[in-house]
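User: Before I run my own analysis I want an independent prediction to cross-check against. Here's the chain; please return only the structure tokens and, at the end, one sentence I can use as a sanity check.
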Amino acid sequence: MRAEIITIGDELLIGQVVDTNSTFMAQELNKIGVEIYQVTSVHDDGDHIRRAVSEALDRVDIVITTGGLGPTKDDITKHVLCDFFGATLVPSEEVKQHVHNLYKYRPEVLNRLTETQWLVPDKCTVLENRVGSAPLMVFEHAGKLLFSLPGVPQEMEIAMREQVMPYLAEHRPTNETIIHRTIQVTGIPESALAIHIEQWEDALPSTMHLAYLPKDGIIRLRLSGYFDKNDTTAEQQIDTQMAHLKTLVAEWLIATDDKPLEVIVGELLKAKHATIATAESCTGGKLAALLNKHAGSSDFYKGSVIAYSNEVKANVLKVRQEYLDQFGAVSEQVVVSMAYGVKQVLKTDYSIATSGVAGPSGGTKDKPVGTVWIAVATPEAVYSELLHLNGSRDQITTRACTKALTKMIKYLQD
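Assistant: Structure tokens:
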């Protein structure tokens, strides 16, 4: 069974708002064996919405729209769908009561615009929107379903979990299941990797497909399997293929699931009851932000010293002045000293340090933009590596963080 997602709103098309809704919906639908065929974003324009809906219903079994359900003039989705399905807007007593209950402590919200929220097309099924005023609408067309959901992510997520998924389970049960397995590799170009596993990939059964997802020095390999829901061997089949793939890429394997690198670092540190700190120059706190991003980071992450200036490197991290004078801030001697220094200052078991030329200016013939030194300090020693990265300033610092985290993962795994 296939589905298509249509996100509605000018704010998406001009980049003012990032579309996270389609990602969430795709993940939820995949859980019940529904394959996403296409994701489309359209303007707040009646003709554009109408064409997108018509084309989607021709292609797939389920269409889900998000956005354009508010009470203001720019929210036109309900009116367009009403016209598309040849319906008439009629008041719904259930929706009216819900809206009054929702705003009973905020009577100032109830006005002539809010009153339009309980007008619904007479050819749709209305589902409860527990946390918002916009009605959730389901239309049936030639045996296919269209769901119209609010664009506010919190409302949409609750609507998907509490209404759309149960509705599909009851009215459109599928006999299919989709299983994904993802591993992560580093240290090999994508093309070289594809050649290395070519024979294995070509021999995959028709029910399985491998996707390459490269980003900032990491390649995620996602193996997807499409099975009958009643096939009791589905998990075993895909796990057998994944085990073979892991063997083929063992030299470059960094993670056996799809977790962010900083989460893997945290899990490995917690398993060792160990702590970590960072000393950052060119990355300016990006490593610290990653390590502190997820709940539970206080179990392993102690803090960071953003040593952007040489004075901080020397005075706080105790980097020798002669190293700074002789070799410069972007050097092996300095970054090793930074890693050792922050480990001593914050009394941790491990540390990571970065120092480099992120650009776009500041590069020299000997140290062009993209030159980055990283160092990882362990209880036994400090290990360093010189990187030559390309891209924008943001890309260089992001890739430096990725490389530093992968280096730390390898040492923690070993």
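Sanity check: The two ends are 44 Å apart (CA to CA).
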